[in-house]
Design brief:
Layout lengths: L1 H18 L17 H15 L14 H24 L10 H16 L2 H18 L6 H7 L1 H17 L5 H13 L2 E2 L4 E2 L4 E3 L5 E2 L4 E2 L4 E3 L3 E3 L17 E2 L4 E2 L4 E3 L4 E2 L4 E2 L4 E2 L8 E2 L17
Parallel strand pairs: 1-4, 2-5, 3-6, 4-7, 5-8, 6-9, 7-10, 8-11, 9-12, 10-13, 12-14
Helix pairs in contact: 2-3, 2-8, 3-4, 5-7, 7-8
């Protein structure tokens, strides 16, 4: 039996190896030249510890001072982030012919520039925590929000990834936000622009597209889509404003879809649940879907 199994295995291996020579995009086997998702997620976890120094500690490390703790975390982040950026820079046409030394120098420059922006990320996250606390009467305290709210985690990862996106680091920002998407059900493209005091309530099913602009003090509920009106243009729409602009103090309730690059939701507007919007909305407007008629078959004994 073992001999027969080995024959079958050998046949399958030969079949797979032949298939790998088909010239398909998925045939690449130089895996060490691709970014490592596990390493990038580990970088995210360490950045989370730096951004929230008293909340997410690595119990494996015995540290005596906050300075020592931060230093250890940073050394690890810098080492791995530079290596990952060196790999992904090769996806950028500007660096196709760059030498290893040039790639390392650029990756180091980008890594330190990104890490210098951590105080800015913390400034914005502080407002996001406050917005979550102010906007959710079910929140016991801010610690509960930091430890357990998926919306805040998705925003945190987005804010980290957005800074790398702004620095034109390929692939890594999207790997980060898609990791958050897989963990929370909230899909925020790293290219979106999001202001302070951003609150995502519940969050599952939210989609925020790449060219979306969101102002300050915006609140979004589960199932909301801030998307493109049409993607039939395919790659020709790259770098085109195709997602909506949400101005300050807007609330968007669950299930609403707001589509199109020319669509602007004016300051202070409230978008009701399940609204489908493809044109601009005036500041202060209150939009809702007209209630459908509810028919009772007579089987219910209670009152609506």
């Amino acid at each position: 039996m073992a001999h027969r199994f080995q024959e079958h295995i050998d046949e399958l291996v030969d079949q797979y190896l032949n298939d790998y020579n088909g010239g398909k995009d998925i045939d690449k086997v130089d895996s060490f030249d691709h970014p490592d998702k596990k390493t990038i997620v580990d970088i995210l976890e360490k950045l989370q510890r730096i951004i929230f120094p008293g909340f997410f500690k690595n119990r494996a490390f015995k540290v005596y001072t906050l300075r020592n703790d931060i230093s250890m975390q940073l050394e690890d982040i810098i080492f791995h982030l530079i290596r990952q950026i060196v790999i992904v820079l090769k996806y950028d046409e500007k660096y196709k012919s760059a030498s290893d030394e040039e790639l390392s120098t650029k990756a180091e420059e980008l890594s330190f520039e990104f890490l210098s922006r951590i105080p800015r990320i913390r400034e914005y996250i502080e407002t996001d925590v406050q917005a979550s606390f102010d906007g959710d009467p079910a929140a016991f305290n801010k610690d509960e929000i930091i430890f357990s709210y998926p919306g805040l985690y998705a925003i945190l990862v987005y804010r980290i990834a957005h800074e790398l996106y702004e620095l034109q680091v390929p692939l890594i920002p999207r790997i980060m936000t898609e990791h958050a998407h897989s963990q929370t059900g909230i899909d925020i493209n790293p290219g979106a622009t999001v202001g302070k005091y951003f609150f995502i309530d519940h969050g599952t099913g939210i989609v925020i597209g790449e060219t979306t602009t969101i102002g300050d003090n915006v609140k979004i509920y589960q199932g909301v889509t801030l998307g493109a009106l049409s993607t039939k243009g395919g790659r020709s729409l790259n770098n085109v404003k195709r997602h909506p602009t949400i101005e300050d103090d807007v609330t968007v309730y669950s299930g609403a879809s707001i589509l199109g690059g020319d669509t602007v939701i004016g300051k202070g507007a409230v978008i009701g649940g399940n609204c489908f919007i493809t044109r601009s909305v005036a500041p202060g407007a209150r939009l809702s879907v007209k209630n459908q008629e509810l028919v009772d078959s007579g089987e219910s004994s209670g009152k609506w």
